[in-house]
């Protein structure tokens, strides 16, 4: 069995999204490029070769990038072991690269400050006219509030359509095709989020009319003054916004990303027993509570409150 054939076999037996296949294919392409014939047998990937490959990767890549690739190969090799193509998963034997610990959750007061900035930050043009600092600011405020109050992933945000919102039940259907785990579930619309979504719906209707069912909820090209080649919102546009937003903050400020907001949601809900682990697991769409626990990041004050109970 060769590496590329192994990937295709796993792909056929799994339910990969195009984005997932693209990631696996890139990892496999990079690894196969290490071999002159471009498609090695599984037996050619030995522990000795793999430790050297790790060293070469870490010479030009971040530890996080290498560890991500290693996780993808662990999945492929696990399948190979189950089919008895090989005897052991050597990617489990070669340890991941150590990664400096960085906070994955945004402190609540910092996120509140960022929301305030998006609510009111203005800048002055040369002619004295005041405009949004991050146009269209109402749009990006809606993005951040939706990510925070629902815990949804970035791919779910950009895949969200107006037909997925049940205004009567005040809920959002997160469809299987936008879910990492291929599950479908509903999340509630909070009191804080409802008026924001209603305002976004009103603004969208003013531009495209009332037939919104199959339109994206978050479609930046509708509201931007800049021309776009395509009228579809992508995750890359959200990533660029967060990068631009961070560039305008203090040098030592906490970077805001969609995934960090998701971690923040889990951390805040479980802080001080505000919610149960099972509820947060269902909100985030995790298949096991163990995964949910990886999203919870107690800080020093949380630990202080715990030891004060002793």
Automatic annotation (TrEMBL):
One Pfam family per UniProt: Phage_integrase
GO molecular function ontology, one term from the record: DNA binding
InterPro entries: DNA_brk_join_enz, Integrase-like_cat_sf, Integrase_catalytic, Integrase_recombinase_N, SAM-like_dom, Tyrosine_recombinase_XerCD
One GO BP: DNA recombination
Top-rank taxon, per record: Bacteria
Keywords, in A-Z order: DNA integration, DNA recombination, DNA-binding
Ranges where the Tyr recombinase domain occurs: 101-308
Family label: Belongs to the 'phage' integrase family.
Protein name: Site-specific recombinase XerD
